[in-house]
Amino acid sequence: MSRRHIAVVGAGMAAARFAERYSALGGKARVTLYGSEPRAPYNRVLLADVLTGRYDAEAITLPTGDADLRLGAEVVALDPGARLLTLADGATEPYDELVLATGANPLLPPIRGLRREDGGGLREGVHALRTLADCARLAEEAMDAKRAVVVGGGVLGVSAARALAALGPQVEIVHQGPHLIERQLDEDAAAALRDALLTLGVEVYLGNRARALTEAGEVELADGYRLSTDLTVLACGVRPRTALAHASGLAVGRGVLVDDRLAASAPHVFAIGDCAEHAGVVHGLAGPAWEQADVLAARLSGADPDARYPGSRPLARLSAGPIEYAAFGEVHLDPAGPDEDVDELRLTDATRGSYKKLVMRGDRLVGAILLGDLATVGDLARALERDDSHADAPLHLLTTTHGAL
Ligand SMILES: Cc1cc2nc3c(=O)[nH]c(=O)nc-3n(C[C@H](O)[C@H](O)[C@H](O)COP(=O)(O)OP(=O)(O)OC[C@H]3O[C@@H](n4cnc5c(N)ncnc54)[C@H](O)[C@@H]3O)c2cc1C
User: Fold this and answer.
1) Which residues line ligand 1 (CB under 6 A)?
2) CATH for 5-105+238-301 (3.50.50.60, 3.90.700.10, 3.20.20.10, 3.40.1710.10)
3) Element (H or E) spanning 380, and its range?
4) Does domain 126-234 have CATH number 3.30.750.24?
5) Per-domain boundaries in the chain
6) What residues contact residue 20 under an 8 Å CB cut-off, 6+ apart?
7) Model confidence, pTM
8) What 3-state DSSP class applies to 131?
9) Ligand 1 centroid vs 128 CA: distance in angstroms?
10) What tens-digit pLDDT sequence spans the chain (405 residues)?
11) Residue-by-residue DSSP string for 254-323
């Protein structure tokens, strides 16, 4: 009897983790990863470090257990009824179980002059940063660039700006929001981050939108101000890649809709990672992608056939050379302030450029932000996970194991 076949569409971070865990758990089926990129799966989170030259492309390759890798192999159609997938070269392949791990595409903002005149790809000098190929193109152009503009001041924009600054150009970030990374940081942490960027030579324009790229290659802001640039990087968020799922009749919201088993709306089809929407949430982060991959590997390998994905706690961590932060749990970004039953403890060290905040509900830790000094991140994550009482001395959570602040 032939072995069961698990086909994974996409060969990125979620797919690699699924394949590696499935093998480690002793799964018996044949697993194939179909990836449209020509590369073996790699750690996308480290792309900015590849850009700066800290790592070479090979160093960020991810393990995939015993899986077969079909690289440069785009899946163009699915037939969930017949359990068949079709590749771009017309070949069809049967599967027993299908895992969608197609990730996300960079979101292109509505900026005039962004595309080439023929309506094709992005205009020369304009880049997104999602793949190793993007990284290679960007690194080459950054060598000769004197000025660079990053559009978007979220995690990706900050990480790209820091990397570009290390390569030489003068970098400016244009961000529409009121402060940097507003989805994860509060105003004080964002201000400390802005100061840290300034010391690297990165200027930040807040509350402003890029509206056009001029003929002369400048970025024109909504207030009419123009920034001259040799290089423009778009970091305006991502959109889950759902076209394939949609065309094959699967239920799609913002992402491919999945339940706690990570099962999509058709039998034998699952979705994990940036393309999946669970309980109304599309995470777009590596941590949740891996947690989903772990649950699905446990189910499909038979190690824990009843494993369920309960959702992921908000946890974001950026490690961008000298700039580091972690934000997790409830960090109360509501400008109106936290709920009444919530206390916030903050420590700011302007000399060291560090900022720490704990959010307590009663005697329980429910959220934290650390910027510039992540020595306590492990202790905090564990305290949040264990839901222990910290009635006596919540401040000890802000100190390292050696007692230093
Ligand atoms: C520069 C950068 C920095 C980041 N930094 C952080 C960070 O600090 N922290 C964090 O948590 N997250 C970060 N992220 C996000 C993180 O990388 C993603 O959440 C993670 O990669 C999601 O994994 P995935 O497998 O769902 O998608 P991906 O890793 O994008 O993999 C999807 C793969 O599927 C392929 N594919 C799509 N459609 C098809 C098809 N039809 N056929 C075949 N192959 C297909 C794609 O080409 C791609 O290779 C960052 C992302 C970038 C780009």
Assistant:
1) 9-15, 34-37, 44-45, 47-48, 74-75, 101-104, 129-130, 155-156, 159, 241, 244, 273-275, 284-287, 289, 318
2) 3.50.50.60
3) helix 377-386
4) no
5) 5-105+238-301, 126-234, 330-399
6) 62, 63, 64, 65
7) 0.90
8) coil
9) 13
10) 689 999 999 999 999 999 999 999 999 999 999 999 999 999 999 999 999 999 999 999 999 999 999 999 999 999 999 999 999 999 999 999 999 999 999 999 999 998 888 777 888 899 999 999 999 999 999 989 999 999 999 989 999 999 999 998 999 999 999 999 988 888 888 998 899 899 889 999 999 999 999 988 899 999 999 999 999 999 999 999 999 999 999 999 999 999 999 999 999 999 999 999 999 999 998 999 999 999 999 999 999 999 999 998 777 777 766 678 888 887 766 656 666 778 888 888 877 778 888 888 888 888 888 888 888 888 888 888 777 776 555 666 666 544 443
11) SSEEE-TT-B-SSTTEEE-GGGEEETTB---SHHHHHHHHHHHHHHHHSSSTT--------EEEEEETTE
Q: Give me the residue label for tokens 């940063």.
A: 129
